[in-house]
Amino acid sequence: MVLSALSFIQESKKSEIASLQQLLQLGKLVGAVSQMIHVLQRERGMANIFLCSREQTWREQFSERVQASHAAQRAVNQRLESEDLTGQNMVNAARLFSRIAGVLHSHNTLVPLRQQILARTISQPEAMNGYNEVIRIHLTLVFETADISGDPSISRALLAMFSFMQGKELAGQERATAAAGFAAWHFDADVHQQLVSLIESQERCFQTFAEFADAHCLALWQQQTGQHSSEFERFRRIACTRKTPDGECTDVALRWFEVSTARIDGMKKVEDSLEDALMICCRERIREAQASLAVQQQNIEQLPQPDNNYAALLPPQLSRCVLELVEQQSRQLQVLDAELTRLRVMLAERKLVERAKGLLMQHHGLTEAQAHKAMLDMAMKQNKKLSEIAEVMLAVSAITDPNGNKAGQ
Hints:
This protein is an all-alpha fold. It has twelve helices and no strands.
């Protein structure tokens, strides 16, 4: 029947609009998660100084960071409540809801972690690993949002934001690691190697960001990188060459924290710009889809209606009009599918790498930067892609792990 054919053409466009509106809601959630990660990164750095300096003067500043994290946590919860994602028929929601559950659970793990820090019953490396895991869980939510996106332009915006957030997190780990070294007045070989790995990993993340970012965000990042102070680079050289810093250790640790925080705050401006770009992209795509639907409806209303309900008896002119509408819709979907296929291949490879890194972190006690470097070294030695190394590691793990556990999921 002609009415069925035309109605399904319209339903296809309506479904596209519904999916775009869901991505807009998720984009708002990503913004709240971005702020939560930012304040947790500051809290982690202050916790490192507090634990390593052994001075009570840092307790109050650490408590202030905790209060800021509480405010950001409430914002994430409010966003989840206002969007009511569980009350909607979301596409590919199973993994997304699992990520959200992980984020909410990670908030609970912060309570005993902070108590241990204030009581000094936890070591600095253990505390840092605790914060790193909570932040990693928040980042996986951003990555999952990019993975379920069915729109190429929005997927690109999400990939740019995720890659930049990942690079910023590594910068936060560098700040916290070096802060501990300056506060303790000591940089050993392991810390030296860890800092070098963190710096190298940051650059890789920012290269991926540059591939997917829009021109405005890319220009803003280039402006920020041009503002790196010589003082920041001097601190980096001290930490990476393991030279004993000059001056009082507490003053040096605080100054490093201030200088590196200025750099990360600059990154937050880029991250906020990426969030704005994501929101603009979502709204523009919704407007385009709605305008396309309106044109479709107008064209359908102008079609001459047949005297019968059977497609076999359609006048040739009407049959051609219906066919043109179907083919136009198909061409649009094919263009979207081609771009999405390319992006999904990249996302699938990133997932393999993240899962393999999770295995190394879980079974060998490596940090994320160390795990990435270990995999990169293997890839270079074997002349293979990083995703190929990850695939082999996961295949071996599936054989050796009787429980079939999947790290990094």
